[in-house]
Amino acid sequence: MKPPYTVILIVPTGIGAAIGGYAGDALPVAKAIASCADRLITHPNVLNGAQLYWNIPNALYVEGYGLDKFASKCWRLRPVHQNRVGLILDQGIEPDLRLRHLQAADAARATLGLNLTDYVVTDAPLNVELRTAESGASWGTIGNPGSLLRAAEVLINQAKAEAIAVVARFPDDPGSDALAAYRYGQGVDPLAGAEAVISHLIVRTFQVPCAHAPALMPLPLDPDLSPRSAAEELGYTFLPCVLVGLSRAPQFVVEADKLPQDICASEVDAVIIPATACGGSALLSLSQSSAQIIAVEENKTSMQVSPEALGIKAIRVHSYLEALGVLVAHRAGISADALSPSLSSLHRLSLSGKTASRTS
């Protein structure tokens, strides 16, 4: 029996990816890839769309640091039927905005049947600050990381949470050029880099699934808004997609004993990545395996790190539509060259002057 065909879809966060750099706009790509794979492994930046989400039964929602550890063969992924999700709210969130998020969590319990624990408010404001690198990528800092970790520890040890959702108060900057560009579908998500810092910290410390939703005041209406950014304009919270994703996120397995359902990096058949963003830890690890790497040129980013610059062997394609064709051929065991009208003849290899011998 053939092993499950497993694909990883990576769209790095906070680098202005033309597809996947906005509000869940890589979800259609993920849905299409999942339809021609047995298992799709991807991360919150791909699957989160604020109040919009899509249940892809064969997709695994894996936080970025956890994905790096999985790719490096340090951790395995163990699929689950359901996680108990704990909720952390930043003490810096105003009372009315906090209530909006609690109502969203209760709605997820009542309407979607999710299993949430009681929530925790951090013992100090997290004091998130946003930064931009020279490359244009976004990142950020947390003023009180200890407060975040103490809240997570309470949820894990007392409430028996199996996954952690974090809502931190992010700075409002409605008049900034960066935010305006993002809303018009032209810039880098100014929040994404700081969000990654928050989730990475919890996953690295506790080895449990985690994802983040920023708390912000609603922005003024804009008739020229890009469809790729519009999901974030639908209400007061981005929390629903995070709770849905975490409810079925696979657990990270560190111990030596492997169960039959555990997924290892050696089982990955293909990886899809923007062609200019090939410097991430997960891809560098997977480039040392037998996985087919597919680099998508159309998904431009603010980075300029090609697979060739790093010595990574990859198939370059123009679009995700073309990438889907490569996946179908790869899964079927068909060489992509055989689908081209310009198939070349075989060439004889030289023995380099060495005499072939045969033992009789």
Which keywords apply here?
360 residues; 6-stranded parallel sheet
Outline: globular
Q: Rg from C-alpha positions?
A: 22 Å
Count of helical regions: 10
Order of helices and strands: EHEHEHEEHEEEHEHHEHEEHEEH
What is the CA–CA distance across the termini?
37 Å
Low-pLDDT parts are: 356-360
Which structural category do the helix and sheet elements fall into? alpha/beta
Helicity range of the residues? 25-40%
Mean pLDDT: 93
Give a short account of the largest sheet: 6 strands, parallel
Describe this structure in words.
- This protein has 360 residues and is α/β, with parallel strands linked by helices.
- The chain has a domain at 6-253.
- The chain contains ten helices and 14 strands.
- The strands form four sheets. A six-stranded parallel sheet has the order 3-2-1-12-13-14. It has a four-stranded parallel sheet with strand order 6-5-9-10, with helices on both faces. The protein has a two-stranded antiparallel sheet with strand order 4-11.
- Strand 1 (6-9), helix 1 (27-35) and strand 2 (39-42) form a beta-alpha-beta unit.
